[in-house]
Amino acid sequence: MKFKFFYTILITAGIYLLSAGSSTGPASILNDGFTGAPGDKAGCFANSCHTDTDAFSNVTTIEVIDKSSGQAVNTYDPGVIYEIRVTIDAPGATGYGFQMVCLNSADDTDVAAFLNPGTGVKISIATMTSRQYAEQSATSSNNVFSVDWTAPSSATSGDVMFYASGNAVDGNSVFSGDDPANA
Q1: What does the pLDDT look like over 106-126, one tens digit per residue?
Q2: CB–CB of 127/138 below 8 Å?
Q3: Of 10, 12, 107, 157, whose CB count within 10 A is highest?
Q4: Cα 111 to chain centroid, rounded
Q5: How far is it, in rounded angstroms, from Cα 64 to Cα 47?
Q6: How confident is the model at residue 14 (pLDDT cuts 50, 70, 90)?
Q7: Helix (H) or strand (E) holding 148
Q8: Exposure pattern of 149-174 as b/e (b: 16+ CB <10 Å)?
Q9: 3-state secondary structure 124-144
């Protein structure tokens, strides 16, 4: 009888940890990157976190927003703080999550400069990649995530690339029926 109770608790805890890992961001729980960036896994679906069912026609986009004008930009000024916005366009989904990293285009090194995470966003370091990620802090009913980013200084400036993986979920607390996509 005591073992039956122990195994029930153990199984329940395991299910909780698996579901918590998917809802609170893979860098903080799984200590890894799933953005599709060089050195990261090719999105969460490549690691069977979420089954890519194309259930919601997920299109994930990344925008770099000039905070003074509110307009999207394609270039940055060294040392300036920009808003980075990840949008998951997936009509019909009941929840959303994402993970994003910024790398130097020349050598794929981490441009660890995220700050001021918006609602439902946190900044995490993944020990598997030693990179800084912006990711969801919990499954969100909002499909737009934002975080500030400080552009590299003039001494280290160069091209950068943002990589993100967005996930549209159906809310059934299992990995099937979801729709991950990379940007």
Answers
A1: 999 999 899 999 999 999 998
A2: no
A3: 157
A4: 16
A5: 28
A6: very low
A7: strand 144-150
A8: bbbbeeeeeeebebbbbbbbbbeeee
A9: EEECCCCEEEEEECCCECCCE
